[in-house]
Amino acid sequence: MQVFRRSVCLGILPSVMPIHPARILFSDDHFLAVLKLPRELVVKGAGEVQKLPLLDFLKKDYPGLRPANRLDFETSGIVLFARTKQALEAAIRQQKGGEWVKTYRTLVTGQPKDAGDIRFPLPARTGKEEASAHTRYHVLKRFEGACYVEAEMLTGRHHQIRRHFARIGHPLVLDHLYGDEKFNRAFARAFHYHHFFLHAFRLTFPHPFAGGAVTIEAPLPQAFEEVLGRLAKV
Fold first, then answer.
1. Is the full-model pTM beyond 0.70?
2. How many Cα neighbours within 13 Å face the side chain of 11?
3. How far apart are CA 148 and CA 130, in angstroms?
4. Which residues have CB under 8 Å from 161's CB, separation 6+?
5. Can you list the positions of beta strands (E) in the chain?
6. For residues 72 and 70, what is the distance between their CA atoms, to the nearest angstrom?
7. How does strand 101-109 pair with strand 198-206?
8. Which pLDDT belongs to residue 9?
9. What are 130-162's pLDDT values in tens digits?
10. Domain annotation for the chain: domains and CATH numbers
11. pLDDT tens-digit profile of 105-127?
């Protein structure tokens, strides 16, 4: 299995300039994996944007590029792009077949169990009906009032990790949609951060053309590293 890692300080990379080479996590004739910054769009949405989405910068050097997965605006980490139509079709087929393993790291409130499986059904992306949803997690480090956790998404529902941790009573720190507003206000006053920490840390998938498994890892954003360090000192 090939493992691709990149050590980068995200805090100094410009988000309004052409893509820094250090943000390219993996590249071959079929796929391109890029490090998405927090509060950066992958593609242009319906609303007005203040800066160009990631795809707009990339397609200047990689014409015909298509996103094989997407991350929400606040979420950082790995975005895989297909460089050909055949690669996109293969990536979609693999995801539908559950062949991708997507691992996230985040900061949640309280003290959940050391490890667990969350299986609450969630609304499907294609309609209003609910669909099965499965998140597996384990605690990486405990702090006063919060935990650093790693979570594997075994299904791909909208806001799955955020919704699932909220359902078990441990919402993401600073998640103003699903979280604990009293906790969030106190945390923001103490640490001066205002957005939740959710990072697509690792992606593993079988390469549909080269064979074998590919694992790509992305470093945490600088702010995420900083808050972990500060929490460790409390």
1. yes
2. 6
3. 29
4. 104, 106, 135, 151, 153, 172, 198
5. 2-4, 24-27, 31-36, 66-67, 76-82, 101-109, 115-118, 122-123, 130-131, 135-143, 146-153, 198-206, 213-217
6. 7
7. antiparallel
8. 47
9. 999 999 999 999 999 999 999 999 999 999 999
10. 16-232 (3.30.2350.10)
11. 999 999 999 999 999 999 887 76
